[in-house]
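Sequence dictates fold. Below is an illustrative record:

_____
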Amino acid sequence: MNSETLYRIRCASQGMRKPSNEILLVIREVFSDGNSRDVFRAEEIQDRLTQQGLRISRATIYRALRNLEKVGMVAKTPDETETGFLFRILQ
């Protein structure tokens, strides 16, 4: 089962809204083969999407990551070296 399908199933089981196309783009990028790291920053996801010619706001990226955290697919931890957070893939 791919990550997008798993996300949709977990959202439905928790009564969450259907994800927007932008949220799904972020989720695909988080779990893509191009994301070789299990730990990443939201800004890294935004940079990779921008390199692909996609303009998705940082707020949308954080919203997607918050939703992924709610359904247990990523975990958020404070970044010890900088301000902000690191996200770790749990799936």
About this structure: The first helix runs from residue 3 to 13. The chain has one domain: 3-89.
